[in-house]
Amino acid sequence: MALHFDRPEFAVRLARLTDKMREEKLDALLLFAQESMYWLTGYDTFGYCFFQTLVVKSDGTMALLTRSADLRQAKHTSILENVHIWVDRVNADPTVDLRNLLVEMDLLGARIGVEYDTHGMTGRVARMLDAQLTSFGQIVDASYLVSRLRLVKSPAEVAYVERAAVLADDALDAALGLAKPGADEADILAAMQGAVFTGGGDYPANEFIVGSAEDALLCRYKAGRRKLDANDQLTLEWAGTFAHYHAGMMRTVVIGEPSYRHRELYNACFETIQAIETVLKPSYSFGDVFDKHAKIMDERGLSRHRLNACGYSLGARFSPSWMEHQMFHVGNPQAIEPNMSLFVHMIIMDSDTGTAMTLGQTYLTTDDAPRALSRHSLDFINV
Phi and psi (nearest 5°) for 359? Predict the structure, then answer.
C-alpha cells in the first residue's frame, strides 16, 4: 500500500476528528475536500473532480462513495476498506446513492455535517445533495472542522514540510542559475519544477507563478512566456511539494540595474517580514500578523500597492490551490500555535511606476520565535 504515514498516525487523526464531532454534536460528517480524505485515510487521487464523498460516523466508522475509476486508487493508497461505487450513467444522481448509503449506515434523522467550502463540491452537487438530505436529517455546514484540525502538524507531517522546504530552495537555486539578460522564462520555470521532481517531490497544488517586466506585477499564473531584458524584473512564487505537503517561497529578482523604487520597496518588504516574525508565535493571532503588515506598509505610503492578506497556512493540499483556509487578513481570530507551517509573503505591486517587489518564505511555529524553513536569506536579489 502506498501510505505516507503509519496506521497509528491515522488512528490519532481519526480520534481527534471524532472527539471534535462529538463536541459539535455531529453524528456523521460528509467529507468532500480531497485534503481531508488524504489527511484522515491517505486516500490520494484527483478523482474529486467528479462526485465522491467520505462518510465518517462519530463512532469512527468510515465509508467512501466514489466512481469505479477510483476503487483501486482508494484500496492502494488509503486505509479505507469500505468503498462503495456509484455507476456512471445518463442523468446519474450519485446523491441518491449517498442517501441510500446513509440509510444503510443507520443515519436517518441524524445530525450530519457537510464540507461545503471545497473545490470538491460544485454548486450543482450542493443543490443535488441538499435536495436529497434536507428532509433526511439535520444538515449543518462543517466546512472547516477538519481544516482546523489540520492546522497543527504532527512530527511526521513536519518532516514532510521540511523536505518540501528543501525542494523549494533547490528550485530557487535552479532559477538563479539561469536568470540573466536574454534568459527565457520557460527555461527558468522548467528548471524550477524539474528541481522539485528530481528531488523526489510532486506537482504543486497550483501552478508556479512566473512573470517579468509588466507581468512581474501579476499575482497569478498566466499562459505565455518571454525573454528577460537587460534591465528587467522577475517575480517568482513557487512551492516545494513532498507527499502533497507544501513549502512556499516568493521573490522578485532584479535583472541589471535596480531602480531606486526597487530598493525602496524591498526595504519595506524586509522590514515588514522582520516585524512579523515578532508576532508569528503563540499568544498572537492570524489577525495580529496582518495588522503588523498593514501598519508598516501604510506608514510607508504603500496602502494602495499592498494586498489585503499577507500569507496563510500551508500543508497537504490538492489542485487548484495550495492555500489553506486560514489566512493572515484583518480580524482573523485564529490563534497561532506551535507546529503550524505558515507562509508569509510581502507583495507590493506599484502600477504607477510599473515596479514589483515580493519577499516570502515558510515558517514553522514553535513555543516562541518561528523557525524559517528556507536555507536562503531574505537578501535583495540582483543578477
Answer: -160, 125
Mean pLDDT of all residues in 196-221: 97
Q: Residue 355, class by beta-carbon neighbours within 10 Å (0-12 exposed, 13-18 middle, 19+ buried)?
A: buried
* The CATH number of domain 7-150, selected from 3.40.50.720, 3.40.350.10, 1.20.59.20, 3.40.50.150: 3.40.350.10
Tell me the one-letter amino acid at 157.
E
pTM beyond cutoff 0.85: yes
What values do phi and psi take at 65, rounded to 5? -115, 120
Summarize pLDDT for 256-304 with one digit per residue, the tens: 999 999 999 999 999 999 999 999 999 999 999 999 999 999 999 999 9
d(CA 239, CA 209): 10
**Architecture of the domain defined by 152-372:** Alpha-Beta Complex (3.90)
Residues forming beta bridges with residue 246, ordered by sequence position: 241
Report the C-alpha gap between 149 and 145 in whole angstroms: 7
- Give one DSSP letter per residue of 299-326, joined into a string: HTT-TTTS-S--EEE--B--TT----S-
Q: Report the 10 Å Cβ neighbour count for 47.
A: 18
Backbone angles phi, psi at 91, to 5 degrees: 60, 30
- Find the length of the chain: 383
